[in-house]
Design goal:
It is a single chain. With 131 residues, the chain is α+β, with helices and mostly antiparallel strands. The protein has one domain: 60s Ribosomal Protein L30, Chain: A, CATH 3.30.1330.40. It contains 2 helices and 6 strands. Strand 4, helix 2 and strand 5 form a beta-alpha-beta unit.
Length: 131
C-alpha cells in the first residue's frame, strides 16, 4: 500500500509527480530544488543558499510525514557543477550531524529552473502518519 504525502510548506510539484510517497514504512521524497515555497522562485545566494533551501524543503516534507532528518537513510545530490561540491557539502554537513545517511552525488547537465542543486531522499517513516 502506498500513500501520497503533501505539504504547502514545500514547493508544489512542477510536473506529474508527488512530493513524497510513503510505502511499507519508508518515505520516498522527490528531488527538491531550492524553490522558496512562498514565492515559487529559486532562492538567491549561490550554492550555499540553494543547498540550505533544498534541505529546508525536504525537512518540511519529512515533518508532514512525521519524520525528521534523523530518519533519513539515503540521499541523492545532483549538482549543476561539481566544483560546487565542497560548498554544498559544508552546508549539507550542518543538517546531517550524526549518523549521516548513505549518499550519491553526481553532476548533471541541467536542473529544473536552472537550479544549482537538487536533493532527493529516502527515510524510515513512522506508520502513525494520518492520511
Amino acid at each position: 500500500m502506498k500513500k501520497v504525502v503533501h505539504t504547502d510548506k514545500a514547493p508544489k510539484a512542477i510536473g506529474p509527480y508527488s512530493q513524497a510517497i510513503k510505502a511499507n514504512g519508508l518515505l520516498f521524497i522527490s528531488g527538491q530544488i531550492p524553490v522558496n515555497p512562498q514565492t515559487g522562485e529559486i532562492v538567491a545566494g549561490g550554492i550555499e543558499a540553494q543547498t540550505a533551501q533544498s534541505l529546508e524543503n525536504l525537512k518540511a516534507i519529512l515533518a508532514e510525514a512525521g519524520a525528521t532528518l534523523d530518519d533519513v537513510v539515503k540521499t541523492g545530490v545532483f549538482l549543476a557543477d561539481m566544483s560546487d561540491f565542497v560548498a554544498m557539502n559544508t552546508v549539507y554537513a550542518k543538517y546531517f550531524i550524526s549518523e549521516a545517511p548513505a549518499r550519491a552525488c553526481v553532476q548533471v547537465a541541467k536542473l529544473p529552473k536552472d537550479a544549482l542543486v537538487e536533493i532527493e531522499l529516502v527515510a524510515i517513516c513512522n506508520d502513525n502518519y494520518t492520511y
